[in-house]
Fold this protein.
Amino acid sequence: MSGTKPAVNLCDYIRDIPDFPKPGIVFKDITPLLANGEAFCASISRLACHIPEDIDAIVGIESRGFLFGAGLSQHGCIGLVPVRKPGKLPADVHGIDYELEYGVDRLEIHRDSLSAGHRVVIVDDLLATGGTVRATIDLVRQLGAEVAACLFVVELKALGGRQRISDVPVHSLIAYD
Ligand code: AMP
């Protein structure tokens, strides 16, 4: 018998919550993964494998992107730049409006957080339709920075988010059909 522990299966720590936050949506709840030290640690190490060496910042998307973004920042000793919902950032912001299925939403970033020539990696917990990360890529580029990759813990393949961001390398740890 070998003493090597089997690699942690991250799928075991993602929980389906039907009809949240509204009827018809199956919410992929990552809180069991966060609560398990081995699983959370493994998720950060596995995401970190996809971060190129010459990165200037991790860009985390509100709000669950902050959790994995902070872990990646600490892991690689790389700064963290938050992209937030409107009205949350205190200094001068640059914003972008983007379309939802019904209506529009907006994301903001501090203008002085990135400059021309910076290379960043964007992280969020989950890729669904890709609208949120598409807006974040465009926001970052509008500040003159370059997006080296987008990282996700979970990808819902049927929603086609990857096709919407085909101009950027995309990595997810768990993909559901
Ligand atoms: P989208 O813009 O459609 O790719 O949606 C991605 C954002 O919405 C991420 O910040 C996710 O946290 C959240 N999200 C969308 N769908 C789900 C879902 N089924 N379960 C959990 N989070 C979701």
User: Anything to note?
Assistant: The mean pLDDT is 96. Residues 25-28, 61, 64, 124-132, 161 surround adenosine monophosphate (CB under 6 Å). The beta strands are 15-18, 26-29, 57-61, 79-83, 93-99, 104-110, 119-127, 146-156, 170-176.
